[in-house]
Amino acid sequence: MQKYSNRLKTENKSVGFVPTMGYLHEGHLSLVRRSLKENDKTIVSVFINPTQFGPKEDLARYPRDLKRDERMLRKIGADTVFYPTAKEMYPKPYRTYVNVDCLTDALCGRSRPGHFRGVTTVVAKLLNIVKPDVAYFGQKDAQQAIAIKKMANDLNMNVGIKILPIVREPDGLAMSSRNSALSPKERSYATVLHKTLLLAKQMVGKGERSSAKVINKMRALIRQEDASRIDYISIVNPETLKPIKTIHGEALIALAVYIGRTRLIDNLKLKVR
Ligand code: AMP
Predict the structure, then answer these.
(1) CATH 3.30.1300.10 spans which residues of the chain?
(2) Is the pTM value of this prediction over 0.85?
C-alpha cells in the first residue's frame, strides 16, 4: 500500500481516502462517491479495528463480508480496497497510541473507555500508510469526526478532513453496519433514535431552550420502547462537546441507545438564533 501511494504521489495524482470497518452501506458509499468526484484516485480501507472495541463489546459479532464490499465498491467505480490484517497493523509488541484529550471523555467515550484512543490510533496509522490529500468521514460518528479533525490539526498532518452528512433509511434510521444485527422487531423499534431527535428539534423550534427539559422528553419517548436501553442523551457544544444547559447558537444533540444487544448512535446539529 505504501509503495502504491508513493507511486501515486510521484504521478501527481490526488488521492481521496475513506476508512471503514466494512459491511458497507449507502452511508459509506456517499463518502466514496464524494471522494471519486473530488480526486484522481480513491482508496477505501476495510479494517475492523480491534483496538477500538472494549473487551465486552461486539468485535466478534461485527458483520463482515469483504467480497460483498468489493462488489459494491467496484460497481460505483472505486478500484482500490486496502484491507490489512490486525497482525500487520499491530505487530507485537505494539506500544504506540494516539490520544486526543478532553474531546474523547464525554458521550461515547464515557461508556466506551479506550474506544477513541483506538480510533485515532488506527486513523493516524492509516493516514500514514495511504498518505491521502483528503480523508472523508461521516457526521454519523460526530464525536469521532471531531476527534479526528483535532488530531490532524494538532499533529500537523498534511491531510484535509471532510465530514459529510448522515445518510438515513427512508424511515429515518441512520444507516449503520450494526443495523444488520437487529431482528425485524428491533429494526422497527430502532427508528426511535431519529424520532427522538426530531422531537428535540420540534421542541427547540417552538422555543424550548432548557436542555434538561428537552432531554427529559426524549428519555420519555425512548422508554416507551420495551427493547430499548438508553446509554446517554446529551446536548453539547458541537466544538468542545461540553454539555450546554441553555440552548443557543449551535448545539449538538447526541444519543446512544441499546436496541436489544445492539448499541446504536445518532445525532442532530441545531442552530438557534
Ligand atoms: P464505519 O465502517 O462504521 O467505521 O464507518 C466508516 C465511515 O463511514 C465513518 O466515517 C462513518 O462516520 C461513516 N458512516 C457510517 N455510517 C454513516 C451514515 N449513515 N452516513 C454517513 N456516513 C456514515
Answers:
(1) 177-272
(2) yes
Say yes or no: CB of residue 109 within 6 Å of ligand 1. Answer: no
Q: Which three cell numbers stand for residue 108?
A: 461515547
Q: Could you name the CATH architecture of 2-164? A: 3-Layer(aba) Sandwich (3.40)
Dist CA 231 CA 84 (whole Å): 32
Ligand 1 near 45 CB (within 6 A): no
Contact 16 CB / ligand 1 (< 6 Å): no
Q: Give the model confidence (pLDDT) of 147-205 as tens digits.
A: 999 999 999 999 999 999 999 999 999 999 999 999 999 999 999 999 999 999 999 99
> Taking the C-alpha atoms of 36, 42, 43 and 49 in order, what is their torsion angle to the nearest 10 degrees?
-40
| Residue 10 Cα to chain centre, angstroms | 32
Q: Which atom of ligand 1 is nearest to the CA of 18?
A: 7
Q: Which atom of ligand 1 is nearest to the CA of 168?
A: 19
At the fourth CATH level, the homologous superfamily of domain 177-272 is Pantoate-beta-alanine ligase, C-terminal domain (3.30.1300.10)
DSSP 115: H
For 195-254, what is each residue's pLDDT tens digit? 999 999 999 999 999 999 999 999 999 999 888 999 999 999 999 999 999 999 999 999
